[in-house]
């Protein structure tokens, strides 16, 4: 059996999990704290039933407070540490996820009702083209935080556009692309003969 002794300031930790912090309101632990031990001390999991929890990285944190709970005692660290984390209940993630599930489900049904059920049969015998058109746009949408990260537009206000370099040029390019897509869609609708129908429906609905 290997005995590991960890020095933490003027204290030594031996034969127990290394837990530093957790005594503040947000249950903030030092970055080298044992994750499962921290979740157990925070009451998110238990030895009998197990459980599921999430860990959020915070970064720099100062003054980790000690805590004694659920049979575990953490050590205080009254100075700054470059990495910290906060253990959270998994329900904190599930609640907003299920909150957006119904709107996403409705939008998906609308897409299928208005577009996919007409376009998917066209690509039934074109697996390569369908993979390119559907998977490429799908992942571009899923990774929006990466694909649109370099666009220098934060808010569509005149003050914000003037402060950010290249924002006006990016906005002009986006408007041109959207206008081209709209014009092409109108052209296709007109070519299929549905343009008078949609134009009449628009006047009736208004």
Automatic annotation (TrEMBL):
<dbReference type="InterPro" id="IPR004043">
    <property type="entry name" value="LCCL"/>
</dbReference>
<keyword id="KW-0472">Membrane</keyword>
<feature type="domain" description="LCCL">
    <location>
        <begin position="23"/>
        <end position="75"/>
    </location>
</feature>
<feature type="transmembrane region" description="Helical">
    <location>
        <begin position="168"/>
        <end position="189"/>
    </location>
</feature>
<keyword id="KW-1133">Transmembrane helix</keyword>
<feature type="transmembrane region" description="Helical">
    <location>
        <begin position="131"/>
        <end position="148"/>
    </location>
</feature>
<dbReference type="Pfam" id="PF03815">
    <property type="entry name" value="LCCL"/>
</dbReference>
<protein>
    <submittedName>
        <fullName>LCCL domain-containing protein</fullName>
    </submittedName>
</protein>
<dbReference type="InterPro" id="IPR051957">
    <property type="entry name" value="CRISP-LCCL_domain"/>
</dbReference>
<dbReference type="InterPro" id="IPR036609">
    <property type="entry name" value="LCCL_sf"/>
</dbReference>
<feature type="transmembrane region" description="Helical">
    <location>
        <begin position="93"/>
        <end position="111"/>
    </location>
</feature>
<keyword id="KW-0812">Transmembrane</keyword>
């Amino acid at each position: 059996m290997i005995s590991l002794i960890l020095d933490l300031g003027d204290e030594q930790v031996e034969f127990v999990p290394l837990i530093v912090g957790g005594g503040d309101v947000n249950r903030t632990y030092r970055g080298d704290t044992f994750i499962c031990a921290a979740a157990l001390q925070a009451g998110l999991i238990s030895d009998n039933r197990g459980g599921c929890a999430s860990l959020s990285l915070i970064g720099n944190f100062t003054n980790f407070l000690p805590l004694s709970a659920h049979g575990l005692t953490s050590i205080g660290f009254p100075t700054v540490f470059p990495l910290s984390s906060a253990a959270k209940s998994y329900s904190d993630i599930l609640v907003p996820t299920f909150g957006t599930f119904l709107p996403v489900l409705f939008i998906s049904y609308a897409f299928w009702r208005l577009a996919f059920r007409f376009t998917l049969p066209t690509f039934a015998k074109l697996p390569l083209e369908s993979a390119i058109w559907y998977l490429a746009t799908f992942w571009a949408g899923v990774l929006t935080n990466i694909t649109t990260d370099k666009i220098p537009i934060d808010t569509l206000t005149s003050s914000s556009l003037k402060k950010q370099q290249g924002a006006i040029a990016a906005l002009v390019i986006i408007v041109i692309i959207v206008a081209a897509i709209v014009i092409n869609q109108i052209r296709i609708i007109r070519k299929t003969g549905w343009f008078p129908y949609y134009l009449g429906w628009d006047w009736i609905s208004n």
